[in-house]
């Protein structure tokens, strides 16, 4: 049993840690707005600053950490990606090392040129159009694509939480064969900006307090004609896209929870060592010490789970159940860490401006509902009932 | 003080199932099928309210409703947080998840037990649909990509 992180990954970890500490953390005030006046919060970094940071990341040879080498990325393994994500999650500054959704990894040669490379280089934004208004999940998805004159005609409405930008295209999931159900009857289309019949709304910049909210963009397709060459992957196989890479993303997201929790622990430690009540530092109080110990124990357990599962994924083993366990545990872990941090900060964890509010918000975006966790429990239980050993 | 005997579900099973199958938040009708306030309530009042079945306006059902969570604009239609308000703002769009029934302090535990044991199983089939078999794609991974 070897618990050592390989030397080259240690190097990557230390580079990203330095980058986060020296470049990103000083920008937190810009992103959060002045501490006393949150009215100038910004969701994203100014464009010039982002370009500058991007240049630095390229210089470090770390742009596109999750993107395979043949697609122009760094092609770090899962453990490497987890280490990078853990470091980046320790700041609220929204900056990633060229993260691209694996759904786009299945682009063909032409699509690579026209769509994938511009997304990797941040020249274009990909609007992932999966969700529909008033719909939950994939059953009953209404967006339709009909074959016509060698191409397709798209009709329907989509919501997208992707980042808005000047130049963009949409990766739209539409039903091409309703009889075969979503798993075999859904196709993904790449729709360019300016295609007739394709309109986007809700991208206007929001300022002030409202900037803290993320609102979905609305994508409307009305008799929108798309060429057959713009099908991503195969027809009817949209939900098989990126299936080699997608499961391991769950591990990387859990690494984000670990990173966020680590920062909460760091902030809580500083608070405990500097804040006094009744004439003594609160770090002397048993309840505060217990909270710190519980936070640290939780982080340690989650981190070990992340590293072990990532190692398994890198060995090419199936990680379906482990990734489900990880998502379940990491989500509960960050909730419990936020609760414990609330003891130390002496305020509820949702109060704006406190670290747990910000970090938890970033870490929990995709697993804050009980239904999402119930899904993971079901995956685990199904495996156990099949007779597999845990 | 021993708990007063609560509604025996066998007596009301048919009508309860009818209520739970109707596309509208079932909480208010389940409350009316319950036995109301217990004589041992801890409210600081002199009036005898044992057996009263009114909605106490706690708003638990409104907070528990996943449909309103997805469509928060409906909250703006009323400031009331009663089960009647829930029925009027959700109406036939109800998911029939029965979360409101479980959240209501005025619904008998016997009815809640029935809901958990006989109705919640339906949630599991929805979960199965989302996950699929071992070789099939995990649809939730795509949702995570879209949200994350």
What does this structure look like?
The complex is a heterodimer of chains A (390) and B (148). The model of chain A is unreliable at 34-41 (pLDDT under 50). Chain A is an alpha+beta fold and 390 residues long. In chain A, β9 and β10 (280-281) form a beta hairpin. Chain A contains 11 helices and 10 strands. Chain B has 148 residues and is mainly alpha-helical. Chain B has helices at 9-21, 27-33, 60-64, 66-70, 83-90, 99-103, 109-118, 121-131, 139-147. At the A-B interface, α7 and α11 of A face α8 and α9 of B.
How is this fold's topology laid out?
The complex is a heterodimer of chains A (390) and B (148).
Chain A: H1 7-24, H2 28-32, H3 47-59, H4 78-88, H5 109-120, E1 125-129, E2 144-148, E3 151-160, E4 168-175, H6 181-185, E5 186-192, E6 198-201, E7 217-227, E8 231-232, H7 246-274, E9 276-277, E10 280-281, H8 286-314, H9 320-345, H10 355-364, H11 370-385
Parallel strand pairs in A: 1-4
Antiparallel strand pairs in A: 2-3, 3-7, 4-5, 5-8, 6-7, 9-10
Chain B: H1 9-21, H2 27-33, H3 60-64, H4 66-70, H5 83-90, H6 99-103, H7 109-118, H8 121-131, H9 139-147
Q: What's the gist of this structure?
A:
The complex is a heterodimer of chains A (390) and B (148). Chain A has 390 residues and is α+β, with helices and mostly antiparallel strands.
Instruction: Outline the biggest β-sheet of chain B.
Output: none
Report the principal-axis shape of chain A: globular
Which structural category fits the helices and strands of chain B? mainly alpha
Which residues of chain A sit in consecutive blocks of at least 5 with pLDDT less than 50?
Answer: 34-41
Note the main sheet of chain A. 4 strands, mixed
Please write the string of helix (H) and strand (E) elements of chain B: HHHHHHHHH
Number of helices of chain B: 9
Helix proportion of residues of chain B, in percent?
40-55%
Query: What oligomeric state best describes the polypeptide chains here?
Result: heterodimer
Distance between the termini of chain A: 18 Å
Q: From the alpha carbons, calculate the radius of gyration of chain B and give it in angstroms.
A: 18 Å
Please name the two chains that share the biggest interface, counting residues whose Cβ lies under 8 Å from a Cβ on the partner chain. A-B, 35 and 26 residues
> Unreliable segments of chain B (pLDDT under 50, ≥5 consecutive)?
none
Output mean pLDDT of chain A: 86
| Spatial extent as radius of gyration of chain A | 22 Å
């Amino acid at each position: 049993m070897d618990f050592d992180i390989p030397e080259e990954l240690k190097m990557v970890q230390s580079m990203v840690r330095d980058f986060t500490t020296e470049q990103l953390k000083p920008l937190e005030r810009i992103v959060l707005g002045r501490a006393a006046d949150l009215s100038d919060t910004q969701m994203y970094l100014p464009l010039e600053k982002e370009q500058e940071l991007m240049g630095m990341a390229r210089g470090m040879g770390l742009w596109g950490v999750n993107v395979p080498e043949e697609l122009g990325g760094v092609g770090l393994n899962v453990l490497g990606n987890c280490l990078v994500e853990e470091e980046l999650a320790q700041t609220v500054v929204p900056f990633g090392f060229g993260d691209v959704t694996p759904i786009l990894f299945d682009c063909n040669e032409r699509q690579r040129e026209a769509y994938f490379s511009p997304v990797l280089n941040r020249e274009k934004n990909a609007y992932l159009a999966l969700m529909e208004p008033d719909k939950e999940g994939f059953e009953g998805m209404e967006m339709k694509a009909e074959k016509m004159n060698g191409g397709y005609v798209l009709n329907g409405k989509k919501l997208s939480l992707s980042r808005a930008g000047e130049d963009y295209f949409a990766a739209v999931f539409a039903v091409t064969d309703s009889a075969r159900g979503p798993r075999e009857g859904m196709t993904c289309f790449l729709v360019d900006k300016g295609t007739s019949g394709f309109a986007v709304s809700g991208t206007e910049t929001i300022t002030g307090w409202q900037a803290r909210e993320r609102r979905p963009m609305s994508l409307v397709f009305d008799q929108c004609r798309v060429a057959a060459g713009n099908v991503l992957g195969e027809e009817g196989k949209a939900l098989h896209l990126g299936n080699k890479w997608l499961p391991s993303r769950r591990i990387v997201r859990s690494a984000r929870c670990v990173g966020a929790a680590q920062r909460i622990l760091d902030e809580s430690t500083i608070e405990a060592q500097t804040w006094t009540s009744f004439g003594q530092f609160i770090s002397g109080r048993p309840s505060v010490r217990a909270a710190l110990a519980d936070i640290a124990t939780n982080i340690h357990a989650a981190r070990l789970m992340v590293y072990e599962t990532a190692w398994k994924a890198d060995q090419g083993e199936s990680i379906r159940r482990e990734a489900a366990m990880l998502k379940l545990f990491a989500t509960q872990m960050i909730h419990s860490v936020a609760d414990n941090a609330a003891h130390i900060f002496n305020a509820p964890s949702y109060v704006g401006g406190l670290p747990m509010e910000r970090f938890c918000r970033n870490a929990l975006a995709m697993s804050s509902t009980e239904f999402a966790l119930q899904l993971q429990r079901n995956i685990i239980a199904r495996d156990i009932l099949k007779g597999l050993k845990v | 003080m021993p708990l007063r005997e609560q509604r025996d579900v066998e007596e009301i099973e048919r009508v309860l199932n009818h209520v739970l199958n109707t596309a509208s938040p079932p909480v208010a009708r389940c409350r009316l099928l319950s036995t109301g306030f217990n004589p041992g309530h801890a409210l600081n009042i002199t009036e005898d309210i044992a057996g009263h079945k009114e909605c106490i306006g706690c708003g638990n059902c409104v907070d528990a409703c996943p449909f309103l969570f997805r469509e928060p604009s409906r909250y703006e239609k009323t400031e009331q947080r009663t089960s009647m308000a829930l029925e009027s703002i959700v109406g036939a769009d109800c998911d029939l998840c029965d979360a409101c029934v479980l959240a209501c302090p005025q619904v008998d535990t016997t009815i809640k037990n029935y809901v958990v044991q006989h109705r919640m199983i339906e949630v599991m089939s929805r979960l199965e649909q989302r996950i699929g078999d071992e070789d099939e794609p995990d649809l939730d991974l795509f949702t995570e990509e879209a949200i994350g």
